Amino acid sequence: MARSAPPAATRFRWPPSAPIFFLRFQIETALTRRTASPALTQPSEHSPAPTPPPQPQPVRLVEDDPYVVEVDFEAGRRGRSSAVMEVPAALPEAEPQADGVPDHDVVMWAVVFAGGIGSRFWPLSTPERPKPLLSLLGDRPLIANTVDRLTPLIPPERVLVLTSRDIADAVHKAIPDVPEANVLVEPRPLGTAAALAWGAHEVARRAGGRSVCCAIHADLAVAFPEAFRAVLLDAGAAAEKHRRIVTVGVRPTRPEPAFGYIRVGAPLDTESGEMRPGGPRACAGFIEKPAEFLAQELIETGALWHAGIVAAQAGFLLDSIREHVRELGPGLNALAAGDLGRFAGMIQSISIERGLLERSEQVAVVSGEFGWDDVGTWACLRRARDLDDYGNGVIGPAHFTDATGNVVHSENGTVVLFGVSQMLVVSLKGITLVTTLDRARDLRPLLDTLPGSMRLRPAQ
Q1: Rounded distance, CA 303 to CA 297, Å?
Q2: What domain range includes position 80?
Q3: Strand, helix or coil for residue 229
Q4: For the chain, which end, N or C, has fewer CB atoms within 10 Å of the first or last residue's CB respectively?
Q5: pLDDT for position 3
């Protein structure tokens, strides 16, 4: 019999074979939200010594589910770091194979969005070194990681990359296996809905309107590429079978206002009378970037995060765009005629989420666990990078003493952090940025005050 959680306990799901930082971050996020409680606040050096905590183990496995751990916050009063690190060694070492997932015979194309400077990663990201070309998650650029993880499900010759003219050569150099003809250069920033329309048009022109294409951003973090490809294949098969626009949903770990949310409806595969986990369901509503309170309500009702991935047959996608995305309507005939310049000059920019997913009733969702995150801000790197024992994420030389939960990116000597937490330090030749991870979520107020030369070419 499963034991019930104590009043002060919270359960966290551990994706099979996930790296330790994934679970650590989930627990630490919850602990951070409780820091207002005196029992969990770190005492200052002048405070009296705290009462020794009770002895029950703060983190333990749940007996009826080997992939869920339970954190007893009352037992973890020794402070954030100890509670976070006491993860049982009995967690699974291998990722189990999913049961009941049918084999699919779907030939898929990919449309990868790799435009934009990525100003939230200033000063590392600049017009000369834009976000898709940054090595934020390891030693390879984001765009190269994206193309690699699609293989072998979608080989490079079936990958279309949409990017801007000023970085097209650098993008192709980072992904040499993708044919040069597959690097589509936007005449101006189009917005993701228009970029998707162009990509779907190219897939239909090259392979036919019934061909399935999936659209994906180049700035996603994926811990388990094989599980990721399995979910993509599920999405493609559902798009082909049900003639829907199929999104990919992942289980939320926090109320994040920067993401889209998918309300999950009825199952689409009902022939067997039993819905398999993660299988295709109707989308009962799509909400893009809700306020935090609404995001919390959506999570409580079972909504999923939108992983920024959609799949559909190319022809159906174009028909849906023509029906719902009125901002693109004036230019679609020009696109069909191959006049890209005229198309770009006749449309208004809008996102896929606002223009299509919030408006169409032919949207479905498949879900899965593959260690997803959106590499959207400096703060997210604490979830996407390996962390040290005190929750610090670092690229480059750094030294930490009594420092927890920081992010450091150094290309210009050693960074030393002493007695601080939740800080961001980016050290490049000629410039160093220091701020909190919270303020780093939106650097526009800072960038608006900087001289143009510093904003566009900070590392001189």
Answers
A1: 9
A2: 9-85
A3: helix
A4: N
A5: 36
